[in-house]
Amino acid sequence: MNFTFLACETTLPDRPNRRNDAFEFDLQFGQLQNALRQSGHTIQAIDWKAPISDFSDADAVVVGTPWNYQDYQQDFLNKLENIEKSGLKLYNSAQTIKWNVNKSYLKDLAKQGASTVPTLWVNEPTKMDIQSVFDTYDTSGVVVKRQIGAGAHGQSLYKRGDEIPDGILLDRPAMIQPFMPAIQTEGEYSYIFIDGEYSHALLKTAKAGDYRIQSSYGGTETPIQPEESDIQAAQDILSFIPFETPLYARIDLLRGSEGKLLLMELEMIEPYLYPVEGPRMSEMYAAALIKRALV
């Protein structure tokens, strides 16, 4: 069988404007390609903007590293719907990804029982909103994030005592959260699941003086062997998803002040799945993809 891995112009090899974290594409695609090849199958990486006719013979299409989709959100979602309308199998599904694009999905999961970081949801964040979170949670800092975004792009941290500008602070809907000290003192945990099965986990830590744990900001990753109770806490979050079990998912968690793991994000669009930290993940991914394509 032949598969297609959707990437983008800033993650594909030999592109002049490659992102500084595009090496993650090399690792994730390369190891999946090797795992499929060992079973006699092939996979090609292609820009998600390419015509569907360029991969119409694929047995299935996976959303891999289209890490510029936020700049073309509606075009991206339309493309995924059109891929499915063409008769191609798409993972994760367009329906799942559309729900996962806006981080307001966290409200849905919280209603189902997921423990999440306290969040104020506003369309036009202002100084009053920042002050409200300071007052409500008695926190040393407040983080403003895009409701639609990834990789900490457009994110701001305001510390108590900072001069906060007047006017609208972000040109798009925002989620405002109290700063969680554990992001600097302990780090963020990521749990990787393939077809609903636990693969591996890791701890992501920021470089000294920063709080952003992404590799593009100097963050580092360390594989861990979590407690069974923590794995189950992550597994429970998957059960709250209102759609079919995703082919791939990354659950990002942070320990709260009372020691409980809190959900930061459930990544089902184009997460980096840390294949180096999870040596069996690519084999699991390949096997699950083949299984689904055969149905």
TrEMBL record:
<dbReference type="InterPro" id="IPR053191">
    <property type="entry name" value="DcsG_Biosynth_Enzyme"/>
</dbReference>
<protein>
    <recommendedName>
        <fullName>Prokaryotic glutathione synthetase ATP-binding domain-containing protein</fullName>
    </recommendedName>
</protein>
